[in-house]
What does this fold into?
Amino acid sequence: MTDSTRRHRAYIALGANLDSPATTLEAAIESIAATEGIELIKRSSLYRSPPLDADGPDYINAVAEISTTLEPLQLLHGLQAIENAFGRERAYRNAPRTLDLDVLLYEGFSSDSAELTVPHPRLHLRSFVLMPLIEISGDMQLAQGRASALLEAALASGQVIQKLD
It folds into this structure.
């Protein structure tokens, strides 16, 4: 049994490309911050990027840094409840979505289960995650290398990202 008062730092990726994605992300950040057991530490700016390995309109993305007393699966389930409240449907893999919330990193925890993989298995490959992550956390060291070097490689591969005002 774990101590429910122990706080863990975690990073959450937010993305949406249906309806009003920027408005949705702002509301989702408020929902995350209002969730019991979660304290919002920082949130990034919003970024626009074309879908990666998918079709549909451009995505709006952000990253939030949180402090939480929730265990990793509790956090995941809380995020899924927020997605559902925003009308998230899982029609097929990489389908356009009203809201996508992913646990990127969770301090002191790693998992490779069918339900939850942390660190997120593709975070080091995605400019739309790396750029907002660097904005709020600096050039952190990930298992695959420095975040700035990974971002440079993602951009060199042709990924496009634009910070919104």
